[in-house]
Amino acid sequence: MRGARNLPPSAPMTTFTTLVREREMETVRLTIEGMTCSHCQAAVETALRGQAGVQSATVYLQDGSAEVEYDPASVSPPQLTAAVEEEGYAATVA
Questions:
Q1: Percent of all residues in the chain with a pLDDT value above 70, rounded to a whole number
Q2: pTM of the predicted model, to two decimals?
Q3: Which domains does the chain have, with CATH numbers?
Q4: DSSP string covering 35-93, please?
Q5: CA distance 12 to 16
Q6: Do 34 and 91 touch, CB atoms closer than 8 A?
Q7: Percentage of the chain with pLDDT > 90?
Q8: Which residue of 13, 29, 35, 45 has the fewest CB atoms within a 10 Å radius of its CB?
Q9: 63 φψ region: left (φ > 0), alpha (ψ -120 to 50), beta (else)
């Protein structure tokens, strides 16, 4: 490796560490209307998880809601509700 960088064999090796500031994630709960089956649940989960900045999305069919963990620098709650509405379901921030 030293030769690839044109460094003499006696040059000290230095370890470089890149520090990446962790982004603060937020969680939002959405109320979703119109889901009647597990296919509906899966469609909403897929739509939410497909949004940039979404870390996780869990959709609860029984109570018609979703919990989404997301990066607020990448996506907003209105964008999340719009993604659900594009699938044909009504969505609001709970």
A1: 76
A2: 0.75
A3: 26-93 (3.30.70.100)
A4: --SHHHHHHHHHHHHTSTTEEEEEEETTTTEEEEEE-TTT--HHHHHHHHHHTT-EEEE
A5: 13
A6: no
A7: 74
A8: 13
A9: alpha
